[in-house]
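hey so u asked for the seq, here:
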Amino acid sequence: MDWERFYREADYDRCAYLAGEEMADLLARFVERVADGDAAGGRPADLASFGCGPAVVPFALAERFPDLDVYGYDLSETVVRDNRRLAAERGLDNLSFAVDELPDLTTDRRFDVVYCVATLYFVAGPEAALRALYDRVRPGGHLVVNYPTEELQRVVREEFDERKREAFHLVRDGENLLTREEVAAVLGAEPRDYWEAVDADEVIEERPEWPTVYVERPASDR
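ran it, structure tokens below
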């Protein structure tokens, strides 16, 4: 998938995936219910979204939590430029964007919350991407991530049109599929269900092809 070409040539929508606009509400719940705890030393100071695209969720979080520094990273220079312009227009001084690409991230700072949803579907070598994301979590912080599975592969093959199947070709061809057990092995920690933590069943219909988990990095992990 040539994302730079996609954002450069397409009149793309500013939309969030999976649960649509509700994804921002769900992450806000996570910030308030889970990340705002003793392990993280209180309300998170910063949050980073990797593979942010049009950044619907980062924009909403920056507006809702003005004391939270929000960062969006994407491989497309075009969408990063567009996001920067929109953030300036809205006066969101706590929101910034930069170009970066999984699995070989150049960003070397750590964050209280690292968020990566609907992105690993398009990444070859998802194990390396998971390690890179977890490395960007500050001790006591949290990683929220979802990952491609065999169930998603079935949906891609049976329900997607030809254009979407091509965009999801890594999933379609089974080249980057993971299980929850493999995620746990890569991170060395037991993932917990994100949808359950944020009461997502109030918002989205349960979809087995959308497993989304969170992992806390131990505060002692210096």
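The domain at 3-147+179-203 is CATH 3.40.50.150 (Rossmann fold). The chain has a mean pLDDT of 89.
lmk if thats what u needed
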